[in-house]
Amino acid sequence: MKVILFCQNAYAFEIMKPIKQVLKERGHNYIWFITPKLSSLFPFTDEPVTQSIAELEALKSDAIIAPGNEVPHYLRGLKVQIFHGLAGEKKGHFHIRHYFDLYLTQGPYFTRGFNKLKNRFKNFEVIETGWSKLDLYAQNRQKILSEKKDLLKKHDAKHVLLYAPTFSPSLTSAEVLEPEIEQLAQQGNYVINIKFHDLMDAKFIEAYKKLALKYDTVYFKKGRDIITQFLLADLLISDTSSVIYEFLLLDKPVVTFGNINKNIQWHNLTEENMLQKAVAENLTNDPFSEKRANVIAEYHPYNDGKSSERMVQEIEKYIEKHGVPEKRNLSLFRKYKINKIFDRKS
């Protein structure tokens, strides 16, 4: 089986890393497709990779796996949507763009939603497999937990906190929570890791870097590795960030400030100067544990680290049963949009 790992954004690399490992183990050929903006961000060495759509056309692939929203209809192969997050309430998550033959869903909540749309449109299949990115947590857990033990011992601290806010100017808590994060640092009970999005305002980056220089228990984390930070942390502090659901699935408490979601299943603060109390309460009593269990059951009940394996197996089964689609039939508008995105003249 010849497979394209189709990447339009940097977040795709972590999502598809476990899949490419399964493809290797099962003897399939694969190639990464990346857009030009990703060339300096591609994290793998000695991996087949291209930026050429023409090369993909010549490849005549059997399957195209994409966590993004688009894939060229004219490429040969089963077009598989695997999603880039777990925030199902976000606008557009259940929007059908008709580019995909198969949707591999993360859990029952998503499966029900896409099955309703399947019954309406009748031109794609839906299979629940779990989400590949979460396999990485099972693979790295023991090593990172050992690092956590050493970190807490070094600082004579009890817990690791992670502060990971959104970068969105209208939603970020970075300014309002800065003094409260410092208050937590002053307590001495916590190691606090700060993880910002690449697009965070420079003034906030500078402010929190200064905080990390002031307190030896505060670390400003660079790079794209959020998985290590999630595994290290006992509790997440955030706002309206897409990382919340991913952290909840590790069965750990979350405290947010000013979250705008309609269905909040964690401790959300709406007033200032309440963070210290909320952190202590959630670490001690964990009042949202039952609600979090419901989120896990609905959003991603798989903790075996084998979602990527299920994904590849379902792709193999689909092709064995239905064959390989030569192309995806689309409306003229959708064809025009794809041609424009990928700069195709015909």
Automatic annotation (TrEMBL):
It comes from the Bacteria. The keyword GTP-binding does not apply. GO terms for cellular component: membrane. Keywords: Transferase. GO terms for molecular function: CDP-glycerol glycerophosphotransferase activity. Pfam families: Glyphos_transf (PF04464). This is CDP-glycerol--glycerophosphate glycerophosphotransferase. It comes from Marixanthomonas spongiae.
